[in-house]
């Protein structure tokens, strides 16, 4: 059988060209560069380089520092995602009970989204400053021997707190609009079918929020993996002793501070594969449980 | 089964708006009561107060002997069918129907038995494992009914359940609801703004206007013996002909229109004469004539609309009246017909209070 071919003009390609060009220049080309660089060993001054196959991968991935950063990233991302989603959901459910209409108020809440992570980090840094920081003084006043410059747990606490704080507002807005999108009569029907509001929430409201929750989970994991770079850079910078190094921050440190382009590239390639795997898992296994 | 009793029920919103202004009602066990009225009259609010979805500002509602003012909606032993069905979109038909029973900790075997039985009764047993978005409007409506039936409640509440269906399906479901209610013999309250639905479904009808019950009674009683102008104009399709008139001692007068046969009415007061379209007839010895504007053929009967040149309606326009006639009666446009009616079948109301005088 002959396939039917329709004549068409090249105009559509012209329309999508700007987007394609942006993707090629800012994503595909650097990604290709990273893969290429990850096979090279460069001298400290960048004057000569040698093709070393997988040595960069072997050297970095099996190093204690990388494993520590990977472990911290996983724990950090899990805590940040769970806490920022959980807190936002709790706040949204409570707000939804009292908030009728009040559009302006909801729009104003969205402003927190406009705060860039480095700005949030800077504000957090000031609050935890040992000399002038109120939070620093408060933590010590209530009996903790708090010093995030020295103690890895305290440092992790600070970056997690700031990361969650920055993200809760965004999640809150999405959850709130998700909740307001659930038809009132469905909630009323549930009220007549089920006495316990706790049970009602988990059997009716939460499943109906699943599309929102899934979307936010993907966004939040990405945020915790990558966007928290700015927060870590402005607060702990991976200190003390690399305890708050996330994988992204380590890529930056090794590549730009340590001038180990090859090793840093190898790490980014591994990170890329990890995120790819994570995304596949999310869409294959979790999305199945989502009812749109 | 048990009846429902409303005593001095009021609903006042925090902003002072009064939705329900004192309703007393005694609904017998097994009776089907229809609340009918224009939109915004408070009929849905009253139903939702019985359901427990709206608070009661004053007065008392009881089901059987139990006062339910403070009882939570799930423990009132009532089941409700919503206008937009309100099915749980993430559950199957079976899940939707069994949800309320599961939460009441009913044994699984009994839940299954009840769901199967109700599904058979409603002819949805083939769809039990489908999701609501795979069903048509009529099927969803049945699922919503099924969800109420399996609960085997003391009282069924229907909040305009048919208004999202197309006209044909609406008539069909109307008949089924009536049959089902007869068979199960459960006390039911049904809210609608459709007066055909109201007339056909109700054992007794409550016409609600501005948060008050204007009149309550059997549908035919309201039709033949309305207590107020509002009830007369709301019940009956086509609508009753309303003619603004004054009484001069012997006749009801509007411009050149003068109708005899009335007595003992107040003079110098604005009155409204109500004549049902089916009590008017073409009669050579009749009291007034109309110029035919339009003939609607409904198959079994014709509705003839015509202008009474000599008289004006409430807005000062030419008075337009409607006459129900046989299907053989087919006058041409602009024909002149002389109409008559038996004054004994006509109603006279005071225009200001709406009170019926005759």
The percent range for helix content of chain B is 10-25%
Q: Could you tell me the radius of gyration of chain B in angstroms?
A: 24 Å
- Terminal Cα separation of chain A, in Å? 39 Å
Describe the biggest sheet of chain B?
Answer: 6 strands, mixed
The total strand number of chain A stands at 2
GO biological process, one term (chain B): carbohydrate transport
Pfam family, one (chain B): ABC_tran
Protein name (chain B): Sn-glycerol-3-phosphate ABC transporter ATP-binding protein UgpC
GO cellular component, one term (chain B): ATP-binding cassette (ABC) transporter complex, substrate-binding subunit-containing
Short summary:
The complex is a heterodimer of chains A (292) and B (358). Chain A has twelve helices and two strands. Chain A has 292 residues and is an all-alpha fold.
Would you mind describing this structure in some detail?
The complex is a heterodimer of chains A (292) and B (358). In chain A, helix 3 (64-98) packs across helix 9 and helix 11 (247-257) packs antiparallel against helix 12. With 292 residues, chain A is mainly alpha-helical. Chain A has helices at 11-37, 55-61, 64-98, 103-109, 117-127, 134-141, 152-180, 184-193, 197-227, 229-234, 247-257, 261-286, and strands at residues 40-42, 49-51. The model of chain A has no long low-confidence stretch (mean pLDDT 83). In chain A, a hairpin with a 6-residue loop joins strand 1 (40-42) and strand 2. Chain B has 358 residues and is α+β, with helices and mostly antiparallel strands. Chain B is 23% helix and 33% strand. Chain B is built from eight helices and 20 strands. In chain B, strand 11 and strand 12 (252-254) form a beta hairpin. The radius of gyration of chain B is 24 Å and the shape is elongated. The two termini of chain B are 40 Å apart. The A-B interface holds A 183, 185-186, 188-196, 199, 203-204, 207-208, 210, 291 and B 51-53, 72-75, 78-80, 82-84, 86-90, 99-100, 103, 147. Chain B: Keywords: ATP-binding, Nucleotide-binding, Transport. Chain B: This is Sn-glycerol-3-phosphate ABC transporter ATP-binding protein UgpC. Chain B: One of its GO terms (molecular function) is ATP hydrolysis activity. Chain B: Residues 4-235 form the ABC transporter domain.
